[in-house]
Amino acid sequence: MKPRTAFGQHTLPGEYFTSEEIFRAERTQIFHRSWLLAGHVSQLPAPGSYFLFELDRESVLVLRDAGGTVRAFHNLCRHRGSRLCLAPHGEIGATLQCPYHAWTYGLDGTLRAAPNMGDVPGFDPKTLGLKPAALADWQGFLFLNLAADPVPFETALPGLVGKFEAWRLPELRSVHQEVYEVAANWKLFFHNYSECYHCPKVHPHLNKLTPYRNTENDLDEGPVLGGPMWMSNPDGSMTSHGGRCAVPFAGLSPEERGRVYYYTVFPSTFLSLHPDYVMVHRALALGVDRTRIVCDWYFHPDAIGAPGFDPRSAVDFWDLTNRQDWELCAN
Amino acid sequence: MKPRTAFGQHTLPGEYFTSEEIFRAERTQIFHRSWLLAGHVSQLPAPGSYFLFELDRESVLVLRDAGGTVRAFHNLCRHRGSRLCLAPHGEIGATLQCPYHAWTYGLDGTLRAAPNMGDVPGFDPKTLGLKPAALADWQGFLFLNLAADPVPFETALPGLVGKFEAWRLPELRSVHQEVYEVAANWKLFFHNYSECYHCPKVHPHLNKLTPYRNTENDLDEGPVLGGPMWMSNPDGSMTSHGGRCAVPFAGLSPEERGRVYYYTVFPSTFLSLHPDYVMVHRALALGVDRTRIVCDWYFHPDAIGAPGFDPRSAVDFWDLTNRQDWELCAN
Amino acid sequence: MKPRTAFGQHTLPGEYFTSEEIFRAERTQIFHRSWLLAGHVSQLPAPGSYFLFELDRESVLVLRDAGGTVRAFHNLCRHRGSRLCLAPHGEIGATLQCPYHAWTYGLDGTLRAAPNMGDVPGFDPKTLGLKPAALADWQGFLFLNLAADPVPFETALPGLVGKFEAWRLPELRSVHQEVYEVAANWKLFFHNYSECYHCPKVHPHLNKLTPYRNTENDLDEGPVLGGPMWMSNPDGSMTSHGGRCAVPFAGLSPEERGRVYYYTVFPSTFLSLHPDYVMVHRALALGVDRTRIVCDWYFHPDAIGAPGFDPRSAVDFWDLTNRQDWELCAN
Q1: Less CB within 10 Å around the terminal CB: N or C of chain B?
Q2: B116 and B105 Cβ atoms separated by less than 8 Å
Q3: In this complex, do C99 and A331 lie within 8 Å of one another by their Cβ atoms?
Q4: Does B57 sit within 8 Å of C11, measured CB to CB?
Q5: Domains of chain B, start order
Q6: Interchain CB distance below 8 Å, B100 and C200
């Protein structure tokens, strides 16, 4: 068995969790250069659907255009820099009009109208379309990268390419979302999620379903780290009653059906793939000692539509586990 | 027609509205070196009347002395630096006593009494008067300058000298004040006030009274920028019903009676001179993304004393317009 | 008579009370290098009793071990840096277990158990005991020093050595505590406590009992500064009714019984020794313009146990005086 975390290693010096200066460097060198999970295609059901992704002072508009293509633009009018969309998500219609001076853009980002600007020498609407942001669609999950010249997604996160197809991720929908804000440095959540050494003390209910030594890492290089834990009950799942709360994903092998797969996707995401559902944590560092975690529980539409569908046992199980962990992270 | 704002210009880079470092430079190089509107002589009706002007950590005491002269002093006791006056305005009496160790000053700033200090070698009360602050009275409006060696008011703001005498500004009184605090950089308010290109979209009620192209700048150099807009109804005013809410100022020409004159006085003031009243915005940058705007509606005492005087239509008109603008500035 | 404060001196420039940069230097060069009052032995009545002392991001655990010795440790698990104790004070039991991964320490700081770590190459529990913090017990008052190589207590504060034995400080107990948070720089509290020149204006009730010139300093070098004030009524005390609220400490001379002794112990403490009780102010700089003052009223157990014991007149007297002073410090 390969150990889940390397032994003989030492933890980072304390200042990495408290220094404003180090956090500013992380902002520039990590968050503004990495692929960050923004959402899922299921949040954009129709042309004109959009949601915002906000990081520090950046606001990115992710939308589905008239042809069905998902696009991402900086949410700023090219005239005076006003934000075009204010609500966190919604439906735009056929065009997008700035609330300040009424400049109007198509869903493909082109500037369609700018009142009274026609007579301004040198004014060229073709150079004044919305500024695109780098976007990648990985199995239905939409990642953004705010770098000026981003590393391609497949180069940055090769560990994800071609993985987890059996869970049919592009088809899933979130049935529940919890938003947590915790007074702790973002890296503590990655440490915490990456080991189960704390489970016997902190999560006895979880440790009963997956004893903490039942694990090995199958991805442990680069920014994707993790692997399976095998359940004591191969027909169970991680729920408050220990049983599944939906039929397992059809394409899973018998071995996969008895396991939960946990991965950190540095620096924004945790993926938790269960036989019957997928949970995703999205971490946003709000400050050196403040982190927002958005947690979604995804199920397949077939499961959601099945008679008697009830995801509460999955939600309750992880909400309890999350809160136990956040308390320790904030300590 | 001369355009209200220059075309072909570009807006400031985004960091000028968000960077703490740039804001600190603005504090030092702009706010602590410029003439800033502090108030109006009508706020000092009698000897001993005072009000405070506070900027960052500076507190300036503006008072009327026993001889009727308006003076400004740093609101700090020369002994231990305690603030002498705490309430934002009030009546002092014949002398001013520090609440800490009871040092007492005359309204002319001289140190009159300092208990038990007489026997201290080298103690010289003549060197320990209150420190004066630079003060200018422009048409009854009191401006302060916190620089060690300020540029004279007339040199800094030549555009104001001798202007607007027909509005009899020194005689006016504020009948209403609104205080707004908005989460936006102070320069956005200057941009916003300086153009009416946004009026059709944002202020349809205003654009009906003064269509946005009815304008030209008559002062456009240095820190005073603006000019008239002519009203569709030459007997109207900017009010919620479109008519005047007081008789026009007696000295206005027929042309002036049909216009509103708008000026920004960089970096603290907007003047809006109507045929029947004068509105003044006073902007105070509280932080890089926080601005306080104090708005006063001034009328002539003859108008205030007239039977049936009711300024609400002027207050309501601009309060609505202000709030529409603040929402955009904060976007 | 030697004056209580030197004349002809000038106050510090204003920036010493407002500059974040100077405050950061004070943190490093003063607070993290000085002996700071943390508490009193009476707060640790039995083996396993503890309290926390927190400064900036440091948390120190002060406890009484199984053998009765008072010890101080950094309140951090050696594994991941979690805080071991969370409540500000309490009882530990025989061992101390980290809430995260269940590492367990003895009250002497040794690592007793670390689950599953036995097979890690190079893991040596003897090197992983809790990190001690420098502790001094001066007459029952417990001082901490966070420096890596602290100056010995007796070298740093020679003025305290052997002083005030007649007040039997190690035996006392606090009967009342007030916690104040004031928007003022910490040094202003030292200035304020160090002179009674402000008493006639600010504390007429106090000035009646001890006229402000009834004083001289008997300790005025290094970080301990102060001396006695003699009371108008030699059988009185500093209380709301002017009389004593307990029998005087048995060992005081007749002269000492008619006096109050006031000392600042830089940079954390004020000692106020009355004939019948001892009041202690503990100052903690929370920020450049925010200070917490914890004030305790200590009496001898014999006084506390006497029929009709009522300390309210002492508490009320100083609570009023404190609040008058804090208002001026915050000005």
Answers
A1: N
A2: no
A3: yes
A4: no
A5: 36-156 (2.102.10.10), 162-329 (3.90.380.10)
A6: no
